[in-house]
Amino acid sequence: MSSFIEPRVLKGFRDYLPEAEIARSALADKLEATFRSFGFVPIDTPALEYAEILLGKGGGETDKQVYRFRDNGDRDVALRFDLTVPFARFMAEHCDELYLPFRRYHLGKVWRAENTQRGRYREFMQCDFDIVGTDSASADADIVLTIVSAMAALDVGPVRVRVNHRGLFNRFLAAQGVSDKLVSVLRTVDKLEKVGPEETRNLLAAETSMDLAGRVMDFITPEGSSAETLRKMISLCGNDDEEAAAAGKRLSDVFSIATSCGFGDSVNLDPGITRGLDYYTGIVFETTLLEMPGIGSVCSGGRYNELASLYTAKNLPGVGASIGLDRLLAALEALGRRQESDPVPLVLIANTESVSLAQLHGQAMELRKAGISSEVFPEPKKMSHQYSYAEKKGIPYALMPDGDSLARGVLPLKDLARRSTTEFGSLSSLVEFLKSVKMHG
Amino acid sequence: MSSFIEPRVLKGFRDYLPEAEIARSALADKLEATFRSFGFVPIDTPALEYAEILLGKGGGETDKQVYRFRDNGDRDVALRFDLTVPFARFMAEHCDELYLPFRRYHLGKVWRAENTQRGRYREFMQCDFDIVGTDSASADADIVLTIVSAMAALDVGPVRVRVNHRGLFNRFLAAQGVSDKLVSVLRTVDKLEKVGPEETRNLLAAETSMDLAGRVMDFITPEGSSAETLRKMISLCGNDDEEAAAAGKRLSDVFSIATSCGFGDSVNLDPGITRGLDYYTGIVFETTLLEMPGIGSVCSGGRYNELASLYTAKNLPGVGASIGLDRLLAALEALGRRQESDPVPLVLIANTESVSLAQLHGQAMELRKAGISSEVFPEPKKMSHQYSYAEKKGIPYALMPDGDSLARGVLPLKDLARRSTTEFGSLSSLVEFLKSVKMHG
């Protein structure tokens, strides 16, 4: 009868053990602090929604990447696969209860039945932030400033936010008389980083002509500075094009705001950034960690002018970005810059039979009241066993009250890494010491 | 063609707007801080698991409350309906990578296709904490102490953790010669609070006999103090019963630990607490907010001695509790003790055309660097419009730089509630003021 059910998770899913979960939540905390410092407020939406909401009408074709099923009430439902579509539905539904412009951030899980052979997960955390209800350089800049600030808070080394504007590309292709090729050219250029300039040129030539491919390659090659690059792009759009001029003005405004905030070096114009997605209409951007450019963009986004048009006639222009939390965590790990957080707990109260549980727990509670995390080892096992537990858990100190120390009125604290013990004459001196090590690492 | 998709969520699901989400996350932060102060570490598990894992074998019968479906790979999968079953699977799978005793907490969403007519949600947040790998009074007490500490951190007023021990009930029924009725009697007694003593007695009489119903009612009626109640219970088990004596000793140990931590008044023996679930084997408890007893227990749990027996032969005794986050949030709301958090943001930088966006954003960034959250209103709209935005969002102050104040080198800060403006001569004096209001409310 010993037929156990094999304890395992689904392919593409994973457990977070404490170390990983602590690192993830430390990362999330820092991002949230940055978002809030910019006035973004948090929201949440359901994991499960009507499939029609998530996938749009004409819902016959099942998107293979979507977890879609009929619920117990025979409703056609699906797990959210991103945070953008639910946000669009959210804005259409709650617009009148909110204030515009609405700045929100949303950290949440999404689910995609991806091909796991490419190292992708089927459940992962997304982190989006947007400003909706305004089409202004101020909002565009705020998203870019938030990205640079968030990366600085995470201590991921120097970053570059590479910005472009869809309007320029549109007008450039219009000037070449091939507006109809916009989406396919954008998608090909989007692959530049992955396949290199040679291959991009070949792909473009196959789609259009050798000649046009050359002109596109010229258009997407940056000059020495953002200002020079912008001048070249506008001239290639035809200098008298009003739409191109407006896009250029928007980019200049964003760059001058970034410069006045001290972020000039971190924000560049890169005409090779297009973002494959259809819905962007204004600025678009990607974020590169200069110490790890190979991992790709850790934060991407752009301006869209019709967030919720599937659900409402209301005009809701917006700009936003999405952080790839898993990619960022992996990068931090690779850079040896795991997000630090306080040891949990700071002190193990060792358990010896000579001291009552009531006393041990009383002492632990005193420490907690003074802001020091502590736990009582629950059984009077051998000291070597208790130390080894503390070591595995990453607890740096052990308080070891025993009959002798109690009689002498002292508190013996063992530094488990140094294997040295210090006796403290009072709880307050012990607390003072522990607070100082907590602050200074 | 204006056929929009109606923006709506599924029945039993809900969006969290910023105010609600901020309250929820403030609550979660306080709970997490308490858990960590006791040495609990966080974990996470997938939302979706094999149905076999979540529902056990003989999986033919579909539990109507479970969201269960076939995924794109035709796997029989389900959304987790609690955090206990995934934790059991987690412990069976990762036991060897972890240290025992393992203290974990887990905050996460769960899904149940409940009848929404009873005001229940189909998606809700659970919060569990457990200590696994030890059967000790120390661990039992730690769970109880954590509950009392968490409730104190949340400022929900006085609480009572009502504790009992399954062993006493077992032995009492054995002494009456009706051990076989254990589960049904436990479940009936569990309804005591809801249906009252009269009805409980009737139900018990129908299940057993009038005579036994009377003896059960006597057994579950508390005396003046926990110690007196315990003496009576042990005597009704037959004073020479070793198992009853051991259970009594365990309860006494828990009470004396609670007392030595200053929580004696908050932890009582209540022989009417049974918890309906089969798997408890030792102490069981419920938590009552004394200012709102009617809402029921806000934190319940107990000791189980076979956490992961479906998945492994390893013996994993444990003790744990589950906090009903939604119930607690509703209680806090009703008590007018919504968890406070800093306004997001503290300062709106008003937008007038006389000051450049670059300057406005530069000022906002200076404030952020000094630890003051701020946002720039993105467009130069009428001041009344910008004030009304700040009011709706709960932003208490507006910084209103204009040509005149810039020329005079002053920073005019408007207190939006008092409608008064103060001019600061420097950024540092402004920051000092804002930090003082932030600290003192």
In short:
The first copy, chain A, has 15 helices and 16 strands. Chain A has 441 residues and is α+β, with helices and mostly antiparallel strands. The relative contact order of chain A is 0.11.
Rounded radius of gyration of chain A (Å): 28 Å
Q: What characterizes the major β-sheet of chain A?
A: 8 strands, mixed
Taking pLDDT < 50 over at least 5 consecutive residues as the criterion, the unreliable ranges of chain A are none
The CATH superfamily of the largest domain in chain A turns out to be Bira Bifunctional Protein, Domain 2
Describe this entry's structure for a reader:
2 copies of one chain form a homodimer. Chain A folds into 2 domains: 18-335, BirA Bifunctional Protein, domain 2 (2-Layer Sandwich); 347-440, Rossmann fold. The first copy, chain A, has 15 helices and 16 strands. Chain A has helices spanning 18-37, 51-55, 84-94, 137-154, 166-175, 182-190, 192-207, 210-219, 226-236, 242-260, 325-334, 357-369, 383-393, 403-408, 427-440; strands spanning 41-42, 48-50, 68-70, 76-79, 102-111, 123-132, 159-165, 267-269, 280-289, 299-304, 318-324, 347-349, 374-376, 397-399, 411-415, 420-424. An 8-stranded mixed beta sheet of chain A has the order 1-5-6-11-10-9-7-8. Chain A has a 5-stranded mixed beta sheet with strand order 13-12-14-15-16. In chain A, a hairpin with a 5-residue loop joins β3 and β4 (76-79). In chain A, α1 packs antiparallel against α4 (137-154), α4 packs across α10 and α5 packs antiparallel against α10. The longest helix of chain A is centred in the N-terminal third of the chain and has 20 residues, at 18-37. Chain A is elongated and about 90 Å long.
